[in-house]
Automatic annotation (TrEMBL):
It comes from the Eukaryota. Belongs to the enoyl-CoA hydratase/isomerase family. GO terms for biological process: fatty acid beta-oxidation. One of its GO terms (cellular component) is mitochondrion. PANTHER family: ENOYL-COA HYDRATASE, MITOCHONDRIAL (PTHR11941:SF54), ENOYL-COA HYDRATASE-RELATED (PTHR11941). GO terms for molecular function: hydro-lyase activity. InterPro entries: ClpP/crotonase-like_dom_sf (IPR029045), Enoyl-CoA_hydra/iso (IPR001753), Enoyl-CoA_hydra_C (IPR014748). Gene3D superfamilies: 2-enoyl-CoA Hydratase, Chain A, domain 1, Lyase 2-enoyl-coa Hydratase, Chain A, domain 2. This is Enoyl-CoA hydratase.
Amino acid sequence: ARSYEYILTSKPKPGVGQVTLNRPKALNALCTPLIVELNQALREFNSADDVSVIIVTGSEKAFAAGADIKEMAPLTFSDAYTKSFIESWSDLTTQVKKPILAAVSGHALGGGCELAMIPRSSSVLIPGAGGSQRLTRAIGKSKAMELILTGKSFSGADAEKWGLAAKTFPSYEALMDGVTKTAETIAGYSKVAIIGAKEVVNKSQDLGLRDGVEYERRVFHSIFGSQDQKIGMKAFAEKKKAEWTHQ
Ligand code: CAA
């Protein structure tokens, strides 16, 4: 595996790639070089044949304490605007076709939230990595408005209640165990289907219902062009376990 300065990569289970944010001295504050490394690792897992699903996690104490305030402090408008500060963060969500599970423990603030979708605005900044748009779609306008305007922190249990987090766990160990099991379940399916499923769910964020349903049907039709569709349906009829080719 390649060695990075701010992240660690591993393959904890067959079909599962994991990126662990590893900048403990700054509670995983998301400096630009960290984002560059994260993008690079995600891109590699995205194209790796032996990876179907990706876990992104931090430490027990901090998922990520947000964008790097010390890096941002001297930035001027023209620096930020002309160099498209933070735009590379979008690669994370738009370039990766395989599902990403965010395993969040401890602080997940500001941009750290935007990375995991767990927000807190600081007193002088507004969300910059898509939080105002994604959070509003995820939990509705009034709750998003309250959280973004007050910068109020909230618990994982709240995040689960609002539908922002899929699941919460009682401890860090249970979290890592749970996310790995979920990743294994996903990695047990055909990669073609997993990627198609993620694509259609994400499309629902951009398309109206009628277009979205049509889009889903087109992707559904395209699955019939895969070997795995034949393999899976034949295995079902024969009451056997499917041996996916991921083709
Ligand atoms: N950027 C840069 N450095 C950070 C950081 C950040 N976001 N968060 C923590 N650190 C650094 C601290 O400066 C400190 O470094 P030193 O040891 O060199 O002083 C180290 O990490 C440990 O932090 P603390 O001593 O503060 O640890 P704590 O346990 O007392 O507090 C905390 C933890 C509550 C998370 C606190 O560090 C904090 O409030 N951090 C800032 C959180 C924040 O406001 N995040 C939003 C950033 S803005 C953003 O993300 C904008 C966007 O939308 C893109």
